[in-house]
Design a protein that fits this description.
This protein has helices at 2-12, 47-50, 53-69, 170-182, and strands spanning 20-26, 37-43, 73-74, 81-103, 108-110, 116-118, 125-147, 153-162. With 191 residues, it is an alpha/beta fold. It starts with a helix and ends in a 9-residue tail after the last helix. Residues 4-18 have low confidence and may be disordered.
Length: 191
């Protein structure tokens, strides 16, 4: 359980913005500029059980900062939009291959069936390829935004990437990853 907790927490601390995958979708009929407040619905089932309180707070604060830059104020309940968060972690397996080439011969040797003379060597030699399997974790953070009045999903942002298990980078990376995700939100930050 402790390893899983570390993995989940690190899911948010993805190594760098260039190694993350971001996608989003929205309801094209919604005018997002009409919303001025938001509330958190809470963490989806199981997500809040595998995050510690510090990281939940960091994630919620990062989203609150991004929504604030877009003109939305956090309220305890009944905001114009409701934000729901959850995290998923998948274990993946990868394979690396490394090939060593060992050649024989020199500047003189058998030359392609045309007798002896200068050439590319005897053509003898061999290659050895070694394969190594490794396991890694991919973390996915999902942010769903619902219209409070209609109860309909109006925006979803998803960010995923290979997990960096260095706990020291969480505080720095959580806001950065959330900022990258929120670049896809239909309302841009006020300058």
């Amino acid at each position: 359980m402790k390893n899983l907790l570390i993995a989940i927490i690190a899911a948010i601390a993805l190594t760098s913005c260039s190694s993350i995958n971001i996608s989003s979708d929205r309801d094209g009929d919604v005018d997002f500029t009409k919303f001025s407040t938001f509330s958190y619905y809470g963490w989806q089932k199981e997500s809040d059980k595998i995050l510690n309180q510090f990281d939940k707070t960091r994630i919620e604060q990062a989203f609150a900062d991004e929504f604030k830059e877009r003109g939305l104020t956090l309220v305890d309940k009944n905001g114009d939009v409701i934000v729901s968060l959850y995290i998923v972690v998948d274990q993946k397996t990868g394979t690396t291959a490394y090939t060593n080439h060992y050649g024989a011969g020199g500047p003189y040797g058998y030359y392609g069936g045309y007798g002896y003379g200068a050439g590319w060597g005897w053509g003898m030699g061999y290659s050895s390829t070694s394969y190594q399997e490794y396991h890694y974790m991919v973390g996915t953070l999902v942010c769903d935004v619902f219209d409070y009045k209609t109860k309909k999903l109006i925006w979803q942002g998803v960010v995923s990437g290979e997990i960096d298990e260095n706990p020291k980078s969480r505080e720095r990376n959580i806001p950065r990853v959330v900022r990258e995700l929120m670049k896809r939100y239909p309302v841009k930050p006020a300058k």
